[in-house]
Amino acid sequence: MWLTVGLGAAPLLSACGDKGSASIEGGKAPYPLARPSHPVTLSIKDSNPPIDDGLEPESGGDFKILNYSDYMAPGVMKAFGKKHNVNVQVTPYNNYDEMLAKIRAPGESFDLVFPGPSVLSKMVYAELLQPLNHSYIPNLANLWQEYQDPWYDRQARYTVPYTIYGTGVLYRTDRVSEVPANGYDLMWDKQYAGKVYILDDLGEAIGMSLLRNGITTDINTGNAEYVSKATDSLIELIDLVDVKVNINAYSEIPEGTATVHQGWSGDAIAGQYYLPKGVTPEVYAYWRPDEPTERVIGSDVIAIPKSAQKPVLAHLMINDLLDEKIGLQNFGWNGYQPPITKFDADFLVKEGYIPKNIMNAVIVPEDFDSGLTFYEVSPATEALWRNNWSRFKAGA
Amino acid sequence: MPDPKIGHDRETRRLWPALALPGTFWLIALFLVPIYAVMAVAFSDRINLFGEPIPAWNPVDWQFGTFSTVLQESVSGIYQEVWIRTAIYSFWALVICIVVGYPVAYYTARLAGRRRGLVLALILAPWWINYITRMLAWVNLLQDDGYVNKFLGLFGFAPHSWLNGSSFTVVMALAYGYLPFFIIPLFASLDRIDGRLLEASRDLGVNSVRTFWAVTLPLSRLGLITAIVITALPMAGDYYTNTIVSGSPKTNMVGNQIELFLLNGPQKNLGASIVLLLSIVLVFFMAYYLVLTQRASRDTR
């Protein structure tokens, strides 16, 4: 028991005394919820201005990055550290909940963070991020036009895009003989029992079930009945196929631990680097819905925390990551595509980054015109999804 | 001339409470304060921007809505199965600990002779390696093309999927992980049994099996109970063992549910409520243990 209490108390205590400690009532968000149809220009307060133009970059000491693990090429970080005489450090997280807990930890500071549109408005409202000074980021011009002024952050005031990806299903071609028209059905197929994985991400998992079962294509729904139905269908997977959850499709599929794994397009592309010796990329494939309006797509962004100790360097690193050469080096390592205009499917295949059989994992600008995206939702909707997810996790 | 004896008494009178100071400090700082923090979170009804409970430090503000929901869901709702599973897994893991651990402790205490130091060192050897590392080693052994299946294949058994959310694997892993914790206190208790009592039993013409049942077992009862308690408490709150060897919601224990709420999301009031419930359940068993030990020490007197 003491063990349990001890483990429980640490995160509890860290939850106290944070910046965004104002209480919210009635399940409504006090910050704007961005939608492509209702773009948001995030406000800049006098108390939290961007850095001045033309400052000298800091040097010496640590440069601290808060990021998913394996999400930035070690070579890129090493070169940056050498050039600017800093020690680049990564603090990893598995999901945004963990990221938010770490960035809000009292006394902690980070120079760079990688959130997404689904948590952005909240983070700006809680003053966790600082506005960007574009004079340090000329490479912004390398990006797709729509990403220089995205709907979730008009004028790219706080963020620049990092990667774009789709969500689909990775599967082993040597074990799956036929892919049904609705590829999600692969996960509800008893013959793959014990080797079926879904993403350890409540949005992606429940959202996928909403789509698979044709409940709704609104993957941000606040309809309790829909979310509950989708969760029931996920719970079926527990007995049907002994479903497991993690976010490691990029290694589980090539190594063969998994036969079917819900995964991001970046996992499909990175999978080629995790193949055992002598195995070719043809051993697995990636499925996404054919219909563009049924495809789930997403993007991650780069931002600078308000607590940054080296904000000038942080701007320089952002500019580096949007550089065509460094961006390509980074992509060649993590498999996640940056929305750099030059990196279209033909270019990436020609450069040898995408095996022919997973061409469909490359994201194109049109995907974003019609695809489905996870938005920032109201606290009430978030609680609804969380409660259902915990029902699934209880294995009931 | 002051009586030196009185001065000594006065000193010891101050010394004894002073000896309790570190323990008292430990108890307050690392148990009472955290448990109060857990209560402040569990009984909070206000959430912040990030959906996290704002701790209600003042007991006047305590609201029991979340706690009673969690209680209800534990008795007859979505967490019911998690509790039952935790109880069943802990129970069977304990049975295995007893079946395997008792003979080992008995051998070490009574029969190992000069090799006793070596046997003890071997029992403690797993502690030289980090718990998580040991569990990960099992993942290697138990995977589909791992050594366990290869070995079974020698006898014509088809490969078995050990790591697919199997309750059996979780129970075995728990028993394996906690076995040393079980053996050591039991060994200490068996070791203390006066050999002359056993000789007396034999001198009275009782065979060794009956000596065991009539003398050794009753005298080691307290050690056995202590060993059970020491293993059962952490087992009930364990979450990493089954995360590593199973990872399936099918085998989720109470510890996993707590982990989900406390480490993987903002709903810490739900997690804190389960922590409190688990503590209450375990305190109940702990109290039973205290009653038993009291009774046992009275009996031996």
Explained architecture:
The complex is a heterodimer of chains A (396) and B (301). Chain A is α/β, with parallel strands linked by helices and 396 residues long. Chain A contains 13 helices and eleven strands. In chain A, the strands form two sheets. In chain A, strands 5, 6, 7, 8, 9, 10 and 11 form a seven-stranded mixed sheet that branches. In chain A, helix 5 packs across helix 6 (224-241) and helix 6 (224-241) runs parallel beside helix 13. The longest helix of chain A is centred in the middle third of the chain and has 18 residues, at 224-241. Chain A is globular, with a radius of gyration of 21 Å. Chain A starts with a helix and ends with a helix. The longest helix of chain B has 39 residues, at 4-42. Chain B is built from 13 helices and one strand. Chain B is an all-alpha fold. In chain B, helix 8 packs antiparallel against helix 9 (208-219). Chains A and B meet through helix 1, strand 1, helix 3, strand 8 and helix 13 of A and helix 1, strand 1, helix 3, helix 10 and helix 12 of B. Strand 1 (23-24) of chain A pairs antiparallel with strand 1 (47-48) of chain B.
